[in-house]
Design goal:
single chain, alpha/beta
Length: about 450
Amino acid sequence: MKQILIKNAYIVTMNAKREIYNNGSILIEGNKIKAIGKVEENLISENVEILDANGKIILPGFINTHVHLSQQLGRGIADDVDLLTWLRERVWPYESSFDYESSLISSTACCVEMIKSGITTFLESGGQYVDAMVEAVKNTGMRVALSKSVMDDGIGLPENWVKTADEEIETQKELFEKYNNSADGRIKIWFGLRTIFNNSDELILKTKKIADELNTGIHMHIAEIAAENDYVKSSRGNSTVEHLHKLGALGPNLLAVHTVWLTDREIDLFRLYDVKVSHNPAAAMKVVLGFARIPEMLDKGLNVSIGTDGAPSNNRMDMMREMYLTSLIHKGRTLNPKVVPAEQVLEMATINGAKCALLEKEIGSLEVGKKADLIILNPNTIHSLPLHDPIANIVYTMSSENVESTMCNGQWLMKNREILFLNEKELIENLKQKSKEIKEKAGIVLPNRFPVIDII
């Protein structure tokens, strides 16, 4: 079986003891970690691939717990607008103009951007062409939980998205049977609930039932904006979280995304039912959702992870940037420099993310027997040195530029900043052409922000 030995590195394991091996080695056999720390010679085969990582940092691959693959081509179409305008007048018309090829190019481009920022696993909250997303993930080598964007109710839905609860459940069951555990186990299929604005109680209840039966996850935007709670109170009698609690929809396989507008009681309900949380700091600030009460959630023991959200709302699929923002905004909000310190942010991006993905026994830390999902950081850049406190530097000074190599399931996806599975220049040209076509098809016209003069 193929072996890879990475030696002489500063290895941040994120194991239960949070051990760090200085000048350590990691031996990979097949798709798993065979040894770490000091690797005995008798474990190493003659044809091992050896990489000297002297002066570099090895981390578990980052886990992005909220992203929209189908929105990658829509970067820049919905900047500086409120959320409902963003959704109903820009993003939905754009996404509803997609075909299979559009989804494939969008998904592939999004995966490549994530790989270049050290993300090896992500949780996708839903597109319409899940088959295309599956193809993209198979080609790019990442680990993922994919969902269909599921809606059976609400105002403003594109006509070709209008489905009944039973239709949405049946489609997702078919996707689960077809793709769950495919691509050497890298692909999981979860059940999606877009938002309570667009999900009936019937759909929520049926989703909870089937997800529990199939032992899979549920991905849902929850308490995203203040108007959401107002809407649910007026239409169903309670806030979003209280209503989900009343329905019996809270549970350990529910990933609640954004969770900006939670009360103390609702945070306690999340703790009681072990609901997982995906915090998306850049998107929350850019689309003006508000500031989620992340320090309070962490203090109460909630499992909080980090997500980038999609390209029209962030606009970068950059986990290094999200970690930096996560720590800064909560220090500013609480006026406390000690909240959400660097080591806690790193936990959110790794082992906490693995728990949100329901994969903590397989990924999220570098330990013997776990999957070989890892990244190599090169700190030798002018913006990252000196390296007095490596953990702090990872969060506060480094960027995706420092991600030198990315590995998932024992396979190099990027090595020495080179994407190995496709021609990146060709992908960029396809992305530019297809994004223009979709924008025109959707009829989206963006005003110029400054006078533009065409020189002939």
